[in-house]
Automatic annotation (TrEMBL):
Highest rank taxon of the organism: Bacteria
Name of this protein: Histidine phosphatase family protein
Organism the protein comes from: Clostridium simiarum
One Pfam family it belongs to: His_Phos_1
Lineage, uppermost ranks: Bacteria, Bacillati, Bacillota, Clostridia, Eubacteriales
Residue ranges that the Swiss-Prot or TrEMBL entry lists as coiled coil: none
Length: 203
């Protein structure tokens, strides 16, 4: 059985300033650090991972470091689970971005590379590429493994869609709060959602 605990990073400066984040590399706030510490304590006590796979963007990697310090698990950097590449939107105030780069008529389509961003099709393809390699390396019928994965809200949605083989236009959103946790299992080729967006470590 393979158990995957997927964790979103803690609160970042961009969250407070209402900015487009994406590939903008903002750090955690003090609250974000404390959220990560609370998550790390819960993970140590309830889900001791063998390894931690983390996005290389600092808000995620710092969260992973805090979890790693608590659990002693090795951290592996993985660029393919970085957040959506939002191109020229990265770092802009949301109100400012709406004026400079107004949404196309009819909304953004999956193939659009709006404001020099990654298309949703390419974003999903990146998640699929990661999953294919990840499952090949870590899943086996006769061995139990526990892996913690630290990423971002948009990428977690893409990973979830890839995990369940959902179509790219599935009209669903997986909500993930700051340090929200999702536990997914693969056992005998069955895919199991144990829980989603758990925040009980913050209460």
């Amino acid at each position: 059985m393979l158990e995957i605990l997927v964790v979103r990073h803690g609160q970042s400066i961009a969250d407070l300033e209402y900015r487009h984040e994406g590939r903008a590399n903002f750090p955690l706030t003090d609250l974000g650090v404390n959220q990560a510490k609370a998550a790390a304590t819960w993970i140590k006590n309830n889900f001791q991972p063998e390894i931690i796979i983390s996005s290389t963007l600092q808000r995620a990697y710092k969260t992973a470091e805090i979890i790693g310090d608590a659990t002693g698990a090795k951290i592996i950097k993985e660029e393919n689970i970085m957040e959506w590449n939002n191109g020229l939107l990265a770092g802009l105030l949301r109100d400012e971005a709406e004026k400079i780069y107004p949404m196309p008529d009819g909304g953004r389509k999956p193939h659009h590379e709006f404001a020099e961003s990654e298309s949703y099709i390419n974003f999903r393809a990146r998640a699929e590429m990661f999953w294919s390699k990840f499952i090949e390396e870590y899943y086996s019928y006769d061995e139990d493994k526990r892996i913690c994965m630290v990423s971002h809200g948009g990428m977690i949605n893409m990973l979830f869609a890839s995990f369940l083989n959902l179509p790219i236009n599935n009209n669903s959103i997986l909500v993930t709060g700051d340090t929200g946790m999702h536990l997914w299992r693969i056992k005998d080729n069955r895919k199991i959602i144990v829980f989603s967006n758990s925040l009980k470590h913050l209460k």
